[in-house]
Amino acid sequence: MISSDPVILGIVASTLGAIFYTSQQQHVFWQKLYQYIPVMVMCYFLPSLFNAFGLIDTSNSQLASIASRYIMPVCLCLLIISVDVHSLLQLGPKLIILFLIGAVGIVVGGPLTLMLFAYFVPETLPWNGADAVWKGMATLAGNWVGGTANQLAMKEVFQVGDNIFSIMITVNVVFSALWMSFLLFCANHSAKIDVWLQADTHQIEKLQQSACHLKTSTKKVPSLNDYMSIFAVGFGVMGLGHGVADFLAPFFSHHYPALARLSFTSEFFWIVIVVSLVSFGLSFTKVRQLEAVGASKTSSLMLYFLIAIMGLQMDVTSIADFPIYFLIGAIWLLFHAILVVIVGCMMRAPVAYMAIASQCNLGGAASSPVVAIAFHKSFAPVAVLLSVFGYCVATYMAWLCGELLKAVTP
Q1: Can you tell me the distance from the alpha carbon of 313 to that of 41, in angstroms, rounded to the nearest whole number?
Q2: With the C-alpha atoms ordered 140, 141, 145, 146, is the resulting torsion angle positive or negative?
Q3: CB atoms within 10 A of CB 121
Q4: What is the CA radius of gyration of the chain?
Q5: Gap between the terminal Cα atoms of the chain
Q6: What is the mean pLDDT of residues 336-362?
Q7: What gap in Å lies between CA 106 and CA 400, rounded to an integer?
Q8: Which of 266, 243, 303 is nearest to 77 (CA)?
Q9: CA 304, CA 13: separation in Å to the nearest integer?
Q10: 336 near 105, Cβ under 8 Å?
Q11: Which of 270, 261, 283, 252 is nearest to 378 (CA)?
């Protein structure tokens, strides 16, 4: 098994190059393949096969940390600086409503799922002790509404055992990956789905037209100086985010530890907050003109590396180890999805709204922009804002879910 990070990174880069090369071929095989499996999904799933077949060992790899802490903030910055704030505000409240509905689907869907298993197969699950199934599900609720910090907070709140906690981490990784792949597939067919749903896409079209106008009206051939400016802004804002996070996270952890429930003690939380706010402010300045010289293309390059590195963490073969818990996760996720789709159809919301709202719940700030960009790059700031909001409310909602899970436990 290959465990060297430089070698793994080289394999990832070669894989991405092969995917993009074959996606441009005119042969009927490649045309059909990428018609049903979009490039973004291929970039995610193909690296996961290296892990599944034992070709690569990422247990001690630092690539995932580098991707989430360095590549993702730079990518976010370059996407946000070109956003049209006015058009963004015209999207209306549907996204927020769907996000909250998705969170409710997780909080309520967990207890309903547990009730089904308690009624039909009560003997297959542990109900008491530190490794009780309801305790593990409470931690998963924290991750699915917010993120890893919220999941860790629930572990401490409910005194969850390490065995059930590790199982739920695996369930989260697998289903978050599978669900994101499904949403990316939907993005590739969003126009047909919106027509079938008779969705109102008026506001999305306005946002897309605004973004396209900025890209085409001032587009020019980028120079070396332009690329240097892009990297200076992206990595400069990333560095600022880390600097502030290195100060604020320990400060709140030492002086206000109770605010851990709001993720104030998480460095990643502050990195996302600072990068988003600074980039948002820069979008009102001349820095926004970097979009005309390839800021979004540079961010897309980083984004695909981020997607591939995330794919390396997924091991689909782990489903066979704990099938009952993965079945719980599947049914629980189904409750969430059905509720989001029903409310979305009632509001005639586009599939982009449903997908982004759902991924902001299940994936958080690290992956929600990936799904958002699959529909349109202008959605990335919205996805980040919703994900950050999820971090703030996730601990409370997960605690409520945990109490409901405990109440329905036989």
Answers
A1: 15
A2: negative
A3: 11
A4: 21
A5: 45
A6: 89
A7: 11
A8: 303
A9: 10
A10: yes
A11: 283
Nearest 5°: CA angle at 198, between 194 and 204?
A: 50
Task: Kindly report each contact of residues 17-21 with a partner whose C-beta sits within 8 Å and lies 24 or more positions away, as own/partner.
Answer: 19/43, 19/46
Q: Residues 267-287: what's their mean pLDDT?
A: 84
Joined together, the tokens standing for residue 296 give 């979004």
Render 17-70 in DSSP notation, one character per residue: HHHHHHHT--SHHHHHHHHHS-HHHHHHHHHHHHHHTTSB--TT-SHHHHIIII
What is the average per-residue pLDDT within 375-379?
Answer: 75
Q: Which of 202-216, 274-288, 293-307, 377-391 has the lowest mean pLDDT?
A: 202-216
Residues 6+ apart with CB under 8 A from 22: 30, 33, 34
Instruction: State residue 392's pLDDT score.
Output: 64
Q: Are 77 and 233 in contact (CB under 8 A)?
A: yes
pTM for this prediction: 0.67
pLDDT of residue 399: 85
pLDDT at 171: 84
The DSSP string of 221-261 is ---HHHHHHHHHHHHHHHHHHHHHHHHHHHHHHHH-GGGGG
Three-class DSSP category at 266:
coil
Model pLDDT for residues 31-43, shown as the tens digit of each residue = 888 877 777 778 8
Mapping DSSP onto H, E and C, the string for 296-327 reads: HHHHHHHHHHHHHHHHHCCCHHHHHCCHHHHH
Considering only 134-138, 203-207, 208-212, 388-392, which range has the smallest mean pLDDT?
Answer: 208-212
Q: What's the mean pLDDT when you consider all of the chain?
A: 82
Alpha-carbon gap, residue 173 to 158, rounded angstroms: 21
pLDDT by residue (tens digit) across 49-79? 887 788 888 888 888 888 878 888 888 788 7
Both tokens of residue 268?
Answer: 């990643």
DSSP state of 71: I
123 pLDDT higher than 60: yes
CA atoms within 13 A on the CB side of 385: 14
Task: For helices 351-362 and 190-197, give the axis angle rounded to 10 degrees.
Answer: 110
The answer to whether the Cα torsion of 327, 333, 339, 341 is positive or negative is negative
